[in-house]
Amino acid sequence: MTPATASALSDSALAICIFSVLLVPFALAGLSLINAGLGRSRSAAHSMLASLCVLAVAALVYFACGFAWQGFNGRPAHLLTVAGRQWSWIADQPFFFRGLELDGSPASLSAWLQMLSVGLAALIPLGSGADRWRLSASCLSTALLAGCTYPLFAHWVWGGGWLAQLGINYGLGHGFVDAGGSSSIHAVGGLTALAIVWILGPRRGKYTMDGMPTAIPGHNTVFVLFGCLLALVGWLGLNCAGAILFTGVEAGRVVLIAVNTTLAAASAALTAAAITRLRFGKPDASLSANGWVGGLVASSAACAFVNPAAAVSIGLAAGVLVTFTIEWLESRLAVDDPAGAISVHAAAGCWGVLALGLFARFPGPALNTVSNSRLWPGGADAGQWMAQLVGIATLLGFVLPLTYSLNWLLNRFYPQRVAEEGERQGMDLYELGAGAYPEFVTYTDGFPQR
Amino acid sequence: MRLTGFLFLLGGWLIVLAAVALLAPALARAAFVLAGFGVEVLGLIFVVRSHLTVRGERE
């Protein structure tokens, strides 16, 4: 069970992998709808256009330089020797996909999947910066994410980098393992969302003078809930393709992956609904939707290596975590995150990574060239748990400062927050010149007087 | 305070890296990884507090 390298996949694995990657755009559509639905009606068209632009920028930048720095397991990389061990810290590939045969090889499939995955990561901060993040600034910030932050961390996890090699180099389980992207897609996107929210500040009117948060509900719950259903389809593809390409599981294991992904989402959504029902008397639709996506995010890392009961436990914990961190961030830490993306993607992503260390049982021979001989019978490996902890420490100690400083620098030269007038009018009118719902004029002060 | 916080985050990560690369005994390595993680949490608290202060000043 060595991750796919230069060798070709079996026919069945290739077919399943291609079908799975074809499903991933549903996750992009779902997340875009969720972001638009949780924002205000006067920014809905802006939100959807920003999603399209951000996906376009992410794909182009990843094509230009992202893959060159992320690379793929077994391909050339820059090595650093530390205490006699080699640390692969960045890939050494030509720009613009040169030297990459787009012929169905694992590397080419990885490049295709990653062009979509980096778009998914870039959509996450959009939800957090809703109603106040300029379109051009979000595109520039995405270029930094797709060209620098994402490929670097993804190389460490999926490109045969030093995190993946913690097992073979230092005996820490199988090294850092993340099959579907809880860390490299979601935690990276979620931490970027946190940096963006800190830099932009809260929306006007979100907090009263004495610091109490006011409720600014999303404008279209149907968008949000339909987005959740689309996201499930996309996540099934993302988790299956990621597990086959990056952890080398056999094709038949996609059934377990699909069952685990669905169970984690279901248990997380029901947990969030039950918690809000107990606390507020009625289940909250947007928090339940956040729970659903949080369950999907948490399932991604370990979906191929846990049994269904563990997937339900991961989902339950994700539902609790998401529900309470959203409230905690908003009321205690003054973090105005309209889509709850920081809790859903950063917090649940980190939980998913840790959960792998707690629940995973690795099948077959070697993963990251480490055999299973060190696993405790029927339980987790302390070294594996440590490797997962090192991964989370890297997210907090390296990715967060990097993404914050890049966006802070961008903000110094190109202010990211829209002008006060833009917030008052709504992003649709101010930046696009037309609203998403022209027949439902709610904010008449934003329209030209006739 | 924000810069201090980010330096703590970076410093905690370096402690974790050093523990992994330089320490062989599992217990010592685990202790230093957890210590580095603790330094990161401290850095995170600094960064969060710095943003709370900035928001208070704006108001």
Short summary of the structure?
The complex is a heterodimer of chains A (450) and B (59). Chain A has 450 residues and is mostly helical.
Structure notes:
The complex is a heterodimer of chains A (450) and B (59). With 450 residues, chain A is mainly α. Chain A has one domain (11-74, 99-446): Ammonium transporter fold (Orthogonal Bundle). Chain A contains 14 helices and two strands, in the order ααββαααααααααααα. Chain A has helices spanning 11-38, 44-70, 106-128, 135-158, 166-170, 182-200, 221-247, 254-280, 285-302, 308-331, 341-359, 382-413, 420-425, 427-432, and strands at residues 77-82, 85-91. Chain A has a two-stranded antiparallel ribbon with strand order 1-2. In chain A, helix 1 packs antiparallel against helix 2 (44-70) and helix 9 (285-302) crosses helix 10. Chain A is globular. Chain B has 59 residues and is mainly alpha-helical. Chain B has one domain (2-54). Helices cover 92% and strands 0% of the residues of chain B. Chain B is elongated and about 45 Å long. Chain B starts with a helix and ends with a helix. The model of chain B has no long low-confidence stretch (mean pLDDT 90).
